[in-house]
């Protein structure tokens, strides 16, 4: 097993993560009325409202330092842990996130226009930091819209875990506004792709001086 980072280079680093599960789920539970919350709990994301995860920065960094070269399996990150090869794949991600996908995707065009016009001034250029603020103060037209926008809120701030300085993904509004598409969408794959990409870059990406980075952030839902 060949280490991606030589043991001699294993140094401490400041690691931050951009997925804020507790803060986001607390906001959703405070924002939604009992009927709206009940509706949200019936979606594939409902269990996340009660998920208690602790992000151990030191442990995650030390595990990432033990990544090994492995080109045999795509969309996988491999580690040498106590002499054993340990894999993190979509399967493991599904177990942790509870977002196992066992449906068939619906291939159809969706439009974000209705929800975007109603709640976001028909704008594609809203930053995630502003999206958070808009969500908190918005008065929804009905319970369905409340659940739909809450799904986008959870995706952006938890499962995709992106920088707040980036623009929100307005295409998600079209997906959630079409019931058939939303119910059959592979939300877990969206999150996993973002997560695995971030984990693979992690501490292995070089800084400008050619050394390993002393500060990095993890995206997705690590």
From TrEMBL:
InterPro entries: DUF1985
Pfam families, A to Z: DUF1985
Domain DUF1985: 73-196
Lineage: superkingdom: Eukaryota
PANTHER family for the chain: DUF1985 DOMAIN-CONTAINING PROTEIN (PTHR48449)
Name of the protein described by the UniProt record: Uncharacterized protein LOC111025666
Native source organism of the sequence: Momordica charantia (Bitter gourd)
């Amino acid at each position: 097993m060949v280490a991606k980072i030589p043991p001699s280079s294993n140094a401490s680093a400041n690691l931050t993560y951009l997925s804020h599960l507790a803060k986001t789920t607390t906001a959703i539970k405070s924002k939604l009325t009992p009927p709206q919350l009940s509706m949200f709990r019936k979606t594939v994301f409902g269990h996340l409202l009660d998920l208690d995860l602790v992000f151990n920065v030191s442990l995650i960094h030390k595990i990432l330092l033990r990544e090994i070269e492995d080109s045999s399996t795509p969309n996988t990150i491999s580690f040498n842990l106590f002499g054993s090869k340990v894999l993190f794949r979509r399967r493991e991600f599904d177990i942790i996130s509870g977002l196992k996908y066992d449906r068939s995707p619906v291939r159809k065009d969706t439009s974000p226009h209705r929800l975007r016009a109603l709640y976001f001034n028909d704008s594609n250029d809203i930053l995630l930091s502003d999206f958070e603020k808009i969500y908190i103060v918005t008065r929804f037209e009905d319970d369905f819209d409340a659940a739909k926008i809450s799904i986008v809120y959870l995706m952006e701030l938890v499962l995709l875990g992106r920088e707040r300085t980036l623009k929100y993904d307005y295409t998600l509004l079209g997906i959630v506004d079409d019931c058939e598409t939303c119910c059959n969408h592979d939300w877990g794959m969206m999150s996993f792709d973002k997560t695995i990409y971030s984990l693979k870059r992690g501490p292995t990406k070089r800084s400008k001086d050619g050394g390993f980075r002393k500060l990095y952030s993890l995206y997705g839902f690590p």
